[in-house]
Design a protein that fits this description.
single chain, alpha+beta, Sufe protein. Chain: A, Glucitol operon activator protein, Glucitol_operon_activator
């Protein structure tokens, strides 16, 4: 009985590791795909929660700060995948305000915007 429980626990643990590795590969492929642009800036914002829904947002802007691509991954499990944020595309990064239902993305959006601002400041110096 105990042997079966230990084997089941180890199998679940190994499955968790495998799925986490697959999710990391998905993240890396998404960032690589979005960063494959001739000009502009890429920002990644991450909101980690110990308990609850975490969020990763990847924003790509042109040199003027207009969002040309945006994807978000939100969820609790390793089955979460990136989705397009079509509403943000075409908006000015610094003039965009989030609606009440989009407030859940605020920490990750702010992190991505801060990364892009840093890149813009370095480029202008």
């Amino acid at each position: 009985m105990w042997g079966m429980l230990i084997v089941l626990f180890i199998a679940c643990w190994l499955l968790q590791i495998l799925l986490s590795v697959l999710q990391m590969k998905h993240y890396q492929k998404t960032v690589a795909r979005l960063s494959n642009r001739p000009s502009g800036y890429l920002g990644v914002g991450v909101e980690k929660k110990r308990l609850g829904i975490g969020t990763v947002m990847v924003i790509v802007t042109d040199t003027d700060g207009t969002i040309v691509d945006c994807e978000v991954m939100s969820g609790v499990t390793v089955f979460s995948r990136f989705r397009k944020c079509k509403r943000f595309i075409g908006a000015d990064l610094f003039q965009l305000t989030l609606t009440s239902e989009e407030q859940k993305y605020l920490p990750s959006f702010a992190g991505a915007r801060a990364n892009i601002e840093r890149q813009m400041n370095v480029a202008t110096q």
